[in-house]
Specification:
Strand content: under 5%
Organism: Hypotaenidia okinawae
Keywords: DNA damage, DNA repair
CATH topology of the domain at 85-189: MutS, DNA mismatch repair protein, Chain A, domain 3
Shape: globular
InterPro entries: DNA_mismatch_repair_MutS_core, DNA_mismatch_repair_MutS_sf, MutS
Number of strands: 0
Protein name: MutS homolog 3
Helix content: 55-70%
Distance between the termini: 50 Å
GO molecular function: ATP binding; ATP-dependent DNA damage sensor activity; mismatched DNA binding
CATH class of the domain at 85-189: Mainly Alpha
């Protein structure tokens, strides 16, 4: 209960943290994802088949055409936590359809770029948890800087050839998200 948490925090003089209402996030009754219990996951063979408990034959196996480990993890999350809102489902469906059916070369270029990257997600996790060496940090920054340059070179093509708003937003947001990388690279150099 909250009283037990406050009592525990008092031992560290941290109980004042809970007195500031701005520190609390409002819990919403509406969630973004459908919760799928273990029995349902098993019966629908979402992650593994029921015959030999292997991935082959499961829904994930059928859908998994990913080229990177971070893409594979993202797909697994999407399969195990499906969206609820029809507008978000349709936006994702439109984005996937455009990637699969578009004749634009931009998606092939992005695919080739992503295939050459190391596991950025794991690298960023190790940075966040302060579990990486300076050399690893530099490698991650260099990779992100290279990604930034490559995506920036594609911005005009993205504007003209990418049609779905979801894909446009995601791709055009990358340079902005990666802008701090240059600062950290300068510090390390």
């Amino acid at each position: 209960s909250l009283a037990a948490i406050i009592a525990s925090l008092k031992g560290f003089n941290l109980e004042r943290m809970l007195y500031n209402p701005s520190k609390f996030n409002r819990l919403s009754s509406e969630t973004e994802y459908r919760t799928i219990n273990g029995t349902t996951m098993k019966n629908l063979e979402i992650l593994q088949n029921q015959t030999d408990m292997k991935t082959k034959g499961s829904l994930l196996w059928v859908l998994d055409h990913t080229k990177t480990s971070f893409g594979r993890r993202r797909l697994k999350k999407w399969v195990t936590q499906p969206l609820i809102k029809s507008s978000e489902i349709n936006a994702r469906l439109d984005a996937v359809s455009e990637i699969l059916l578009s004749e634009s070369s931009v998606f092939g270029q992005i695919r080739n770029l992503l295939c050459k990257l190391p596991d950025i997600e794991r690298g960023l996790c190790s940075v966040f948890h302060k579990k990486c060496s300076t050399q690893e940090f530099f490698l991650i920054l260099s990779t992100l800087s290279r990604l930034d340059l490559e995506i920036q070179a594609l911005v005009p093509v993205i504007h003209s050839q990418v049609k779905t708003p979801l894909l446009q937003n995601v791709l055009l947001e990358i340079p902005e998200l990666l802008s701090p990388v240059k600062h950290y690279l300068k510090i390390l150099n």
